[in-house]
């Protein structure tokens, strides 16, 4: 009997210790949040504008190349070999400028995107941390479609709280509760 009581006492102690260490877990559909976050849309718009400007500049370089190629072609019977070589060198320089610009613009777009996205994620991380601490959550998981969360109780959805922290006006939920609007 003493052995039984001892086993029960140990089991109760272990259960209470694990219950005391249990963490409150919340979740947030980050994809849905990004779709309605004006700052995120501003980043997308900025990147799109940069890419469109870069494409326009690349097209201008292509037009210069084509114009120079036509000029060289029209003068090939009139030019001396030295002049023909100079024109070919100019054409190659335009082609090299085009290649260098395309590479530079792609790298610059990646740098700009990384900086802007990093700034957004710092804001998002700060908002999630603040909501988690204020509401006693040990963890906040991303419950976006395709994520690793298989089931999430709607009462632990912090979507609206994070929206409030980021000063985002969320869409009206279709069903009563605090769940993420779909």
Please characterize this protein's 3D structure.
The protein is mainly alpha-helical. The chain is about 70% helix and about 5% strand. The protein is built from five helices and two strands, in the order H-E-H-H-H-E-H. The chain has helices at about 1-20, 30-35, 40-75, 80-135, 160-165; strands at about 25-30, 140. It has a two-stranded parallel sheet with strand order 1-2. Helix 3 (about 40-75) packs antiparallel against helix 4. The chain starts with a helix and ends in a 17-residue tail after the last helix.
Strand content: under 5%
| Helical amount | 55-70%
Question: Strand tally, please?
Answer: 2
SSE string: HEHHHEH
- The N- to C-terminal Cα distance equals 57 Å
Derived structural class: mainly alpha
Count the DSSP helices.
Answer: 5
- Strand arrangement in the largest pleated sheet: 1-2
Query: Mean pLDDT, nearest integer?
Result: 84
What's the story with the biggest beta sheet? 2 strands, parallel
Low-confidence stretches: 4-11, 13-20
Principal-axes geometry comes out as rod-shaped
Radius of gyration: 30 Å
